């Protein structure tokens, strides 16, 4: 990333960024600082993904599907509220400070679950803390990853950064199920807190990307275009489906007797990681729009396949499609949005993008829980697929015939 002071008439932020073509040979992705922030993100998400199994704990405490949705959604609502503040001050205060603060808060909140033995105010309070911690740490980490990446290879960089997230979606639930079977949920909560402590230690070595003062006037120039609004609406729709899937797949697989939930998460993660490693840069070379449109179509199909799953094989097939679609759609949409921001507004652009996705996941957890309880999991997944189909139409219409040159947010 070029510092704003060095941006001139030849700035890469003004040049077309969706053209096809090979990246420059000197655009190195795996720099030490990029690797460190990615490693910190990996351990942070091991904590986050460990709580994919929280619905099983809530059910064991006597909670219904609606209660599960409320418990899981509370974190998302808190994160959304926090993003409103983070978007305004992240670039000014400093990304590293938010990263360290978020990691420390997540470690404390996760460990505190050891002392909660019933569904009540304490449980919801901890979920609120986790939501705030997630908003701070993830927005800061992803902004640093964007800032550390070459401007011409952002989709590829975000794809690789996302691998640190996706691998935890398989590792944490698989390890968590084994741990719960042997030692119960307290062991899971203790391990989850430990992961965030490790993340904090790694993040301590991550430098700040640029002087925070560079963003002092960023708020005066933030002007979302039709393209950006379409992208944010689209990622929100994808978030609805993602939230529904990760929240209710554990109880769905158990109720439908489809085998261990780890099967879905392992296949989904493997597919998502491979698609990001092999296809994460497609948006950089083929253009963001056609790649996003194709990925959204597969995304909707994957959730339909999940609704139709009647066997472990069907569950694995749905996970495969879900992983490929999510693995390509998310980083390409992210790059599409960030490419339309000033270099000193990256934190704000990332906060809006992550906030839109968080809004979707929260909606999926809360609203679709009522659908699942009233009509069953399968109807709920079909509803989630319809939301992705609507997102497909929003993005297609909102970006049709638009300039291939990125606009500044």
What's the short version?
The chain is mainly α. It is 75% helix and 0% strand. The model is unreliable at 1-25, 211-222 and 403-409 (pLDDT under 50).
Q: The biggest beta sheet, please? A: none
Question: What class do helices, strands and sheet pairing give?
Answer: mainly alpha
Helix content: over 70%
Count the DSSP helices.
14
- CATH fold node name: Growth Hormone, Chain: A
CATH architecture assignment: Up-down Bundle
The CATH homologous superfamily is named: MFS general substrate transporter like domains
Order of helices and strands: HHHHHHHHHHHHHH
Low-confidence blocks of residues: 1-25, 211-222, 403-409
How many runs of DSSP E, i.e. beta strands? 0
Which descriptor suits the 3D outline? globular
Oligomerization status of the protein chains = single chain
Q: What is the count of distinct domains?
A: 1
Q: In angstroms, what separates the terminal alpha carbons?
A: 17 Å
What does this structure look like?
With 409 residues, this protein is mainly alpha-helical. Helix 5 (121-148) packs across helix 13 (346-375), helix 8 runs parallel beside helix 13 and helix 11 runs antiparallel to helix 14. It has 14 helices and no strands. The chain is globular, with a radius of gyration of 20 Å. It has a single domain (29-209, 217-399), classed as Growth Hormone, Chain: A (Up-down Bundle).
Secondary structure layout:
Elements: H1 32-50, H2 54-60, H3 65-93, H4 95-112, H5 121-148, H6 154-183, H7 185-203, H8 226-255, H9 261-279, H10 282-286, H11 288-308, H12 312-338, H13 346-375, H14 377-399
Helix pairs in contact: 1-5, 1-6, 1-7, 2-3, 3-5, 3-13, 4-5, 4-7, 5-13, 6-7, 6-9, 6-12, 8-12, 8-13, 8-14, 9-12, 11-12, 11-14, 13-14
